[in-house]
Amino acid sequence: MISIRGIQKWFHRGTPQEVHALRGVDLEVAPGDFITIIGSNGAGKSTMLSCIAGALSIDAGSIHFHDTDVTSWPEYRRAGLVARVFQDPLRGTFGGGTIAQNLALALRRGAPRGLRPGVRRHELAFFQERLATLGLGLEHRLHDRVALLSGGQRQALTMVMATLRRPELLLLDEHTAALDPKTAAHILELTERTVAEHGITTLMVTHNMAHAIALGNRLVMMHHGRIVLETRGAEKAALTVTALLDRFHDLNAASDRMILS
Q1: CATH code that applies to domain 2-92+168-260
Q2: Do residues 64 and 17 lie in contact, with contact meaning Cβ atoms separated by under 8 Å?
Q3: DSSP structure string for 91-130
Q4: What is the pLDDT of residue 142?
Q5: Where are the chain's structural domains?
Q6: What phi and psi values does residue 245 have, to the nearest 5 degrees?
Q7: Is the pLDDT of residue 109 over 90?
Q8: Residue 259 pLDDT
Q9: Is 50 exceeded by the pLDDT of residue 261?
């Protein structure tokens, strides 16, 4: 479904601050895959998601969706294919708008827009139905401004917005990292349920190795801009946090030895 081939990304290339963020990343994503992505800070996880979404251009390589080359497509053109939930709950919603207005914008993601009312009366029942699945009472607050919501409520709303129009690909960029443990657990449960119910192909970046093992059917580890480990199926199910940490530490130790030598 999605083919990422040899993508390279530099920041500040040709300057003393040069960073080679992605070093020939290859990844084939099948329909319905739920891939968790782990790695240390600076491994290239979020950069890869930004390149897939079109928020960052790549310096080499290609990105295909269903055999269509989208490498040169800008972010707005990929909006009909890709939905993204960020670490910061404020980034996925417009605080000055109402819950209904935010949902209406999400419903029209990637679609043509004309001179018609932003929120249509017949859509309100649909919005209430989707919000009711959250169990947060937001279905009764459609006309409240989003700025009045807590961080957890905004992130839950963002999950609904991201999947209101079923995307070809859902990108979750450490979307529970800024939440308290109880709220994070609720958002993860919502994530797992939403992805399963709608069969959404998903890439999820996380620093929590237990979550990376428990969720999804594939796990990818990145290190210094490369994919250095991939596991799936029974092999992934048999993983433990200790075993994964050992692999992670082995990679860092090997990297340190290379630098010292």
Answers
A1: 3.40.50.300
A2: no
A3: GGS-TTSBHHHHHHHHHTTTS---SS-SS-HHHHHHHHHH
A4: 96
A5: 2-92+168-260
A6: -65, -40
A7: no
A8: 38
A9: no
